[in-house]
Amino acid sequence: MNDGDPNAPRRGRAQVPGSPGGPAGGNPFGGMPMADGSGASSGRARVGRASVGGAGGGAAGRAPVGGAAGSAGRARVPVQSGAAGRATVGRASVSAGAADDVIENRGSSGRPAKGSPPSGAAAARAKRARRRNMILGAFALFIMIAGGTVVGGTFFYDDVALPKDLPQREQSTTIYYSDNKTEMGKIGNQNRTIIPSDQIPKDVKNAVVATENKTFYTDRGISYTGIARAAWNNMTGGERQGASTITQQYAREVAELKGITYSRKLREAVLAMKLNDTYDKDKILTAYLNTVYFGRNSYGIEAAAQAYFGKSAKQLDAAEGMALAAMIKNPAGGPNGLSYYDGTVQPEQAVARFESIKPNMVEMKFITPEQAATLKYPPMKRYDPSDPAFAPQWGLDRPTGNVLHNVIDELTHMTDAKGNPMFPDLEAGGYRIVTTIDKNMQDQAEKYASGKLKDSPLASAKAGAIQGVPPEQNKVVAALVSVEPYSGRVKAYYGGPNGAEQDVAGVWRDKILSPDKKDDWAGFGRHAPASSFKVYTLGAALREGISVNSYWDAPATKKYDGEPGEIRNAEGNGKCAAGQTCRLWEATAQSLNVPFYDLTKQIGPSKVLEFARDAGVRYIWDDNGKKYDLNPTGPIKDPLNDAHVGIGQFRVTVLDHANGVATLAARGARAQAHFVSQVYKGSALLYKEAFKPAQIRGFTQQMADDEAYALQKVLSSTNPGLQLANQRVAAAKTGTWQATEGASDTKNNGNSNAWMVGYIAPDLTKKPQQFYGLATAVWMGALKGDSVPITIGRSPMFGSSGPGKIWKGYMDVVTTSMPKTKFAEPKFVGDDSRGNVAAPVAPPPADPNAGQPGGICIPPFCQPGQQQPGGPGQPGQPPAQPGVVPGNGNGNGNGHGNGGQGGGGPAPGTPAVFPFRRN
């Protein structure tokens, strides 16, 4: 019997008045509340219907207990006044105390009532109630004693429906990291994990039968003598009692029968007999053990094993099984809602209860007397309410809570080949979900993106004021997502410190964990990608046949007919190695807006969007917050017919961006980003990830190699401080979005969004790849509003100074044990003449005798690897006019090391080292 479920009305075979305070117990099967008005313990009574002798304050003694509330078995139960004693309990339960046959309240305490006798009208009502109870009780006694022969021939027997199968109660679903061992969270309303019979040791089953129902293997599911005794006691005005077998207890759960009424007891008895006649005993016992409440918020034997002993049920021994079986009688009637039979609460009572089970085990030949003598009460782990083992649901209020949202989104929208939901009963629980999240990578993502590190750019970052928003509510935050190329596995996901509050890394639909339980979009992870989106513009250009060696005009600013405003490069810099003419890979390394705007206009904004979609970007938002789904295949008809797409004006999520960059890392092989690796129910594997990366249509591996070449220059030339440690090569792109649209001075107006996206190369020597590489996207911005300026220290935030540092720190750590790989050499595919300006004409050589085996090139016409004239010269002098980047002093001289006036910019083969301010 079970009367300690904190989520159900309290009940019991016998109740003890005046037990110590604490949360009231209950019963997951339903049942009647206690009669003492407190969190009293309950127990099994033997015989009699005597009342409890009230102990005075501080008194101690031995009290014979009968029909009134009594203690549990022969256990020691302290009374409310502080008295201690030993109570012999009669097989009685709780007095109705009113005319109704369903107890609506907790009734009396079992002590003599105070005050005058009831009035005449009240006495008459009570007399009629007693008469009615006697008549109903006599009828119930007759029906119950008659047994299956009489009951089976009645309409009532036929009217009680038998379920098609033994239904199971709601249980928890547990989510694990990719190691399939470390729990990430648990979802559900009850801490229950249903397990099959073969995972419940025989010793545990025997202990429960010996404790709760010794006739379980021989009875018809009901106890006729117990029913007769209870019916007679109830009929004659004694305390109403349950007299339930294991099968009856489970029958009550199956039919969700509530309250202690004669009609309910009849239905319970009939259903118990039908269950007994239909299913074998082991199946009924297994269902019961998966249902019963054991205290400590644990429903079922598996949850109880974890809650009390920190192990799986299949690892329990006989002593541990007996200790848990002892808990069923009163799992939550003690202090703080715990059981008196919990070894960490009342050790003496727990041991006494444990010892009382041994004779039954011996009597039923489950163990020998010699074995019984060796069994000792097992040590239990102490109860810690914050320990996830005791919670029906946990993990949502952690950073990985946002992973849980994405897992639910993925599974609830997963369909089979016919388009039917694969997991329609996900909310009912009972699943074991293994995610793709790597525990170490996730820990590092939380470490670097949370701003807890002292040298984190987040530590000194501040957002500008927003009218009506207190400064402390508009914090500067970061998001970080890592995706494994070729597989699409999300290895780390950080969208904020609390999954119940915010997610700035993505958007999702979660109808199970979201507060409104609706299948609506949530999350705040869409941000203007700025120049980091140029990775897709460059990819689209390569797919359209444009070479990274094509030449583009790159003035500081450019006005376009019919368009408001003008396009400007970062800080007004438009100087490449050949004046205002840049090769496309140079424009990429220096993050120049004008060439990329012209490039987008030439190929069309739709081509950029199509490539972004094919790489893995699912959604994009315009300035008004309108969302466009890019998922449908085929041409995109310019939903955003605006060349600003090519320079990153329209918003994307951090997750989508990481997925797209992972496709580039896989040399154009796209795999869908996902969070779920495997799904189990019990021991059955229901789902396993299957990824088949497909090459982007029209985008070859050679094109991907050319793009990687250009993106490597972002680190090696433009931002050398962001290169990874230990000479590990990477390809990356920064992005910075201005806080004030059309501002002419970024230093004064500041920047509101900043990005760093990048990847390391996979191992190209193995097929299939054993090392897939890693792609990571990092964003920084304000929690509220995406247009306020952000500073880091006293300087405006840039992609390199904010998220760039987070990206580098994180990647340095998580790639430590990964193989050092290199990218394939560039192939320089495509048409060099597809730029918007002609290639500069090479001047005649200054020294006709200059020549070496293999040839010497003349800047800016040097290709990578060609020898340039002269050795290292003296450092070049700064240019006379502002805005011209000093040269590196490595050439343009007479070939004898005297070329010190290289102020016009570096040779194309060695781009200038620009400041970190890149958009």
If helices are DSSP runs of H or I spanning 4 or more residues, what is the number of helices? 21
CATH superfamily of the domain at 170-390: Biosynthetic peptidoglycan transglycosylase-like
Strand tally, please? 29
Shape: elongated
Strand content: 5-15%
- What is the CA-CA span between the terminal residues? 69 Å
Highest-level CATH class of the domain at 170-390: Mainly Alpha
Q: Label the CATH architecture of the domain at 170-390.
A: Orthogonal Bundle
Residues in helices, as a percent range: 25-40%
What topology, given as strand order, has the largest sheet? 6-5-7-22-23
Radius of gyration using CA atoms only: 38 Å
Output the CATH topology of the domain at 170-390. Answer: Penicillin binding protein transpeptidase fold
Mean pLDDT: 77
Largest β-sheet summary: 5 strands, mixed
Low-pLDDT sequence parts:
1-118, 147-153, 741-747, 851-861, 866-919
Structural class estimated from helices and strands: alpha+beta
Condensed summary:
27% of the residues lie in helices and 13% in strands. The protein is an alpha+beta fold and 919 residues long.
Explain this structure:
The protein has 919 residues and is α+β, with helices and mostly antiparallel strands. Among the domains are: 170-390, Biosynthetic peptidoglycan transglycosylase-like (Penicillin binding protein transpeptidase fold, Orthogonal Bundle); 530-650, Beta-lactamase, CATH 3.40.710; 841-919, no CATH class. Strands 6-5-7-22-23 form a 5-stranded mixed β-sheet, with helices on one face. The chain has a 5-stranded antiparallel β-sheet with strand order 10-9-27-26-25, sandwiched between helices. Strands 8-28-29 form a 3-stranded antiparallel β-sheet. The longest helix has 33 residues, at 120-152. The protein is elongated, with a radius of gyration of 38 Å. Mean pLDDT is 77; it is low at 1-118, 147-153, 741-747, 851-861 and 866-919. Residues 1-73, 100-126, 825-919 are annotated as: Disordered. Residues 825-834 have a biased composition (Basic and acidic residues). Residues 19-29, 51-60, 886-907 have a biased composition (Gly residues).
